[in-house]
Write a structure and sequence with these properties.
homodimer; about 325 residues; alpha/beta; TIM Barrel; 2 domains; about 15% strand
């Protein structure tokens, strides 16, 4: 949800009985502190801070030059001067400074994507009192996370929008659907499993519970909330989306992520070997995304979305959260 | 299940309260009659005959020659003389002769994959008294099938083993997971929806029911039954399979299908533009499959499997069917 989440969104979710989350991968420690401050100014509910745990390689100059050349025709078509482009925010891995922010801010929950930080940082997070969650896309990853002390595992099915959490798995074509993944992870680990991917309404929540999940994680559904920072073009694309209108693509960041298959995704990807390694692909794409939006077209925009999007409707986050919980409860009672 | 199904398997399923099915795509009308006769000799339960509805183009000689050249090194490595290869059975579309067999044999249910046969054949099947099912992989396909008179829609999620039923959808990378697909199809159509894909045990059945499915279809689970015609190498591969060990591949037939990612799939595919159109790719691959199995290796074998395979265990089909129904019932009662 990085870039789309807000303190208002997270606070509304937590106030309604859910666990609101702030995406920290694009934030400096000062920005994290500001976001948590904004959340706490309007909520005393529980808070989850989410971090990425990738290895941050230096920019590969040759790969970057090739990428710039690949994108040059689009820069030209959109009237962007490559020399006038301001530096873009790049996704940062969880590090000592982010860990210090956690120790100071003391969120109830910290979640990680792409594995876990090094053991010393992980231990500091645990000692801060936070419960630690992390994403697994197969059984091997789930066992790896459990062995290192995660308190719960997010089983991220292939339907999920945004970045695939895969960190031992290598092939996006082999990612597993939620229906098959959740019970296999539940069977493999002793900690609670949180189901993610393709869950758009109460039916999916009830289904996930029967698969053995202790809880569910929804992202796309909350992109439809007025509290989310989603541009009108993105929201319209979400509302017009069909389940088979998304695809796993690496063209925005270098790592496979599920998003709406627009012109940029189809022409350059969806999965391309010419893309620089995560997260550096994003720096050259950021100007295209911005110019596309400014020109009133979503053709070059990064629009993460899961396959459950057509199940979602525009409504305030608190109302959505309460409705999901209540409707799932009624569904499960009825049988 | 074509090639793996048996009359004994279907009869055991029907005797236990399920709907046993015979795969007819590889059978002549005489072979269909023989299979139905074998079923009825041991069962008076309901029977489903499944047919494919593809367009049967003539062999494209140029594509076939290129395919033969691509496979030549494997023929050589496995010691196959291309001139000594007997003609292989090829998947046939539902036609007048198959329809006449249906009219004579009067199965309770006829199901179609890859769309529907032409209207005159479809009407003859309906007039025979059979209920007609067909597979949809997205909402558009489900609406198309409903508009033409199908009595129920099989919503085939991306987790499913074997051929993708896609006939309006074109891109296998955009196929939708069961968790997201089923409720969207349920919302779109008025007829009952049968969930397929990633369902390996009672938890998946209960989950599918909460997604709105009226019933479920399991294939991979029945490959583990002693009544199935599954070779020891295939069964061992199924038992050792992990959820992310399968992939959508077109190298065996020309149409995307989910199977175990072995050497042949990885080296030639998994999805290749060099493969002749369905179903003709299979004729050149058949000798490789046979020689591989004869040599005691599964490296070149066609081993369809869904992502739920790790949830499945070896047990007789009747026992499996009764256990699935009872365990799902208990699960749904408990909540």
């Amino acid at each position: 949800m990085a870039g789309c989440d807000t303190a208002q969104l997270a606070a509304a979710v937590s106030a309604a009985g859910g666990l609101g989350s702030l995406a920290c991968a694009l934030l400096s420690p000062a920005q994290i502190a500001a976001a948590v401050g904004a959340f706490r100014a309007i909520s005393n509910g529980p808070l989850n801070l989410n971090f990425f745990c990738h290895t941050m390689d230096p920019v590969d100059e040759a790969a970057d030059a090739a990428w710039a050349a690949r994108l040059a025709p689009y820069y030209e078509a959109l009237g962007i001067d490559p020399r006038s482009v301001p530096p873009a925010a790049v996704r940062r891995p969880f590090d000592d400074a982010a860990c210090a922010a956690v120790e100071t801010l003391r969120p109830q929950v910290v979640s990680f994507h792409f594995g876990l930080p090094q053991a010393s940082l992980f231990e500091r997070v645990k000692r801060s009192g936070a419960a630690v969650l992390a994403s697994a896309t197969n059984v091997e990853e789930a066992l790896w996370l459990q062995a290192r002390g995660c308190d719960a595992i997010i089983a991220q099915g292939a339907e999920a929008g945004g970045h695939r959490g895969m960190f031992l798995a290598r092939d996006p074509a082999k990612q597993v659907g939620t229906m098959a993944l959740v019970p296999q992870v539940v069977d493999a680990v002793d900690v609670p499993v949180i189901a993610a991917g393709g869950i758009g309404d109460a039916r999916g929540i009830a289904a996930a519970r029967f698969l053995g999940a202790a809880a569910v994680q929804l992202g796309t559904a909350y992109l439809f909330c007025p509290e989310a920072k989603v541009s009108p073009l993105y929201l319209r694309a979400l509302q017009e989306l069909r389940a088979d209108g998304t695809v796993l693509t690496n063209v925005f960041s270098g790592h496979p992520a599920r998003g709406i298959a627009n012109r940029f995704v189809e022409e350059v990807g969806p999965l391309s070997d010419a893309v620089p390694r995560f997260p550096h692909a994003s720096e050259r794409v950021a100007p295209l995304r911005a110019a596309s939006e400014a020109a009133g077209t979503s053709e070059f925009m990064q629009m993460w979305a899961g396959q459950g999007a057509p199940l979602c409707r525009v409504r305030p986050a608190g109302e959505l959260t309460r409705a999901l919980a209540q409707e799932a409860h009624v569904l499960m009672k009825r049988h």
